Amino acid sequence: CARHRTPPRRWSLHTKITLVTTFSLVLLSLAWFLLVEWDNPFLFKGADVETRLRYGVVAAVMPRSSGFDLSWVPQVSEPTKVFMSVIMFIGGGSTSTAGGIRVTTFAVILLICRAAFTGHTDINAFRRRIPTRAAMTAVSITAACLFLVLSASLALMLASGCSLTDALFDACSAFGLGGYSVGVAREDNPAALFILATAMVVGRLGPMTIAYAINRPRALESIRYPNEPIVVG
User: Which residues in the chain land under pLDDT 50?
Assistant: First the structure.
């Protein structure tokens, strides 16, 4: 019944951040495909404007969920491959079947940067303060997964001799469980298949494992040392 539905203003902070970030990524991806790949015949196949918009929405959503149509992927431009790699690295929502670092992790990273650039010590969103532990978890997940993807990309370059763009694309696709490929993995190259399979497993379980390891109950510090500033950046 509609009268029993929870109004948006009473949604949890997690729900608000997930929805806003997801819709923002979809709109950004749609704008990218329409602007950069508008004249790509493999993606739009000379369709009219309405069909291009529909294909653009599909192309914007699928990299973060599942690759149903793979025929056009190897034919996109090099900048689009890098852009799709970033989108697949971000992945879907937390606790979903999608891979990647998850949209909430990405959102918290952006909120941390906003707080740092504006001179604030608290990380706020929708009139709520994000706990320090959640911020530490987001930074740790992003750093660890970024190291994994870069390592997998370098390993794919050594195993298959492909370019950095193609290796990064397939590594992010495996990590984000997107299902796309530009042909790096082949049946006659078991080393590349093993690397991508490992990235898929880590992409599904890695962020959750890191989050659990950071947020598990801990004993109180028996010794606390004094603060001393260091120079960073």
Answer: 1
